[in-house]
Amino acid sequence: MIQLSNIHKSYGPKKALDGLTFRVAPGELFAFLGPNGAGKSTTIGLLTGLVAFNEGQALIDGLDILKEPIKVKRLCGLVTQYPNLDAELTVGENLDIHGRLFGLSAKERRLRKAECLDYVELADRENSLVKSLSGGLKRRLMLARALIHRPKVLFLDEPTAGLDPAIRRRVWSLIKKINQDKVTIFLTTHYIEEAEFLASRVAFINEGQLIATETPQAVMATLGQWAVDVYGGEGLRSQYFESREAATDFLKNQSQGGAVRRVNLEDAFLSLTGRKVE
Ligand SMILES: Nc1ncnc2c1ncn2[C@@H]1O[C@H](COP(=O)(O)OP(=O)(O)OP(=O)(O)O)[C@@H](O)[C@H]1O
Ligand SMILES: [Mg+2]
Questions:
Q1: 77 has which bridge partners?
Q2: How many angstroms separate the alpha carbon of residue 154 from the centre of ligand 1?
Q3: Which residue has the least CA distance to atom 31 on ligand 1?
Q4: Is the CB of 52 under 6 A from ligand 1?
Q5: What is the pTM (predicted TM-score) of this model?
Q6: d(CA 126, CA 154)
Q7: CB 11 less than 6 A from any atom of ligand 1
Q8: How far is the CA of 158 from the CAs of 13, 33, 235, 244, 249, in angstroms?
Q9: How many Å lie between the centroid of ligand 1 and the Cα of residue 37?
Q10: In this predicted model, what pLDDT tens digit does every residue of 215-266 receive, in sequence order?
């Protein structure tokens, strides 16, 4: 459904993407993870026709993004990293404008608006001004808006940033539901447990280069099954082991305090992207 080959993108002298190549199959829920400035939003930008690139080829559903930009845009829904709703308009008006941009007729817009509001459980807020909505409701409205033209691929750039844990889980359920309804999802997030919970496959990007694309379980397995966190003079350090016994033995020989736990995707993220916990 998404195919990137050898993409290069520079902003002046700064290389944002450096030979990016990967594929996402139809129906996948693909999480794209990486530290701040790694190139995640730039990748979403170029896949949705908002960012030009210097070299390489990008296809959505077999269509070349540069040769068929309008057709490609019709296939894609986008929830951007920073909310871009029209705050002075109502919920319904925001959806209506988006429907117009995609060329939907008045009747289609009415039907799709009701359907999308129901879908994200916002039907009772159709006439509320967007500026009166909480952060969680705004995110749900952004999801509804991205679905108004029935895209085949949905790009979600940190869709739960800044949401409280309960609301975040509600948005997760919604993302799962959208994916179960056969929409391919490309997700970026800094909440690693979000990727672990939602994604069928994860990719790690660092400084514009792809490091790994695997199932969350396979990425974690490269480290081991068990982790020991040791709190010492250098801060928190983690060591990884295949068995619980090996982890416990290691901890017994440490003079500082520590804890044994299962390896998680965050360990893989920190190990692959080279960020140390300080
Ligand atoms: N419009 C721009 N002009 C110049 N440099 C840019 C522009 N947009 C992004 N960059 C640079 O390109 C690199 C990749 O940025 P990008 O926004 O894609 O990262 P990101 O992975 O989405 O980060 P974050 O997790 O902070 O959202 C960064 O070094 C960033 O400073
Ligand atoms: Mg970003």
A1: 154
A2: 20
A3: 37
A4: no
A5: 0.90
A6: 23
A7: yes
A8: 27, 10, 29, 34, 39
A9: 5
A10: 878 888 888 999 999 887 777 888 999 999 999 999 998 887 889 999 998 8
> Which ligand approaches the C-alpha of residue 42 most closely?
1
> Is 16 near ligand 1, meaning CB less than 6 Å away?
yes
How far, in Å, is the centroid of ligand 1 from the Cα of 107? 40
Measured in angstroms, how far is the CA atom of residue 116 from the centroid of ligand 1? 31
Provide CB contacts within 8 A for 14, sequence distance 6+. Answer: none
CATH superfamily of 2-219: P-loop containing nucleotide triphosphate hydrolases (3.40.50.300)
Parse the chain into domains and list their residue ranges.
2-219, 224-262
What radius of gyration, in Å, describes the C-alpha atoms of the chain?
A: 21
Separation between Cα atoms, residue 175 and residue 160, nearest integer Å? 10
Both structure tokens of 58: 């990008």
Residue whose CA is at the smallest distance from ligand 1 atom 28:
37
Structure tokens at 249: 């033995």
**Beta-strand pair 226-232/29-33:** unpaired
Distances (CA, A) of 115 to 80, 153, 195: 22, 18, 27
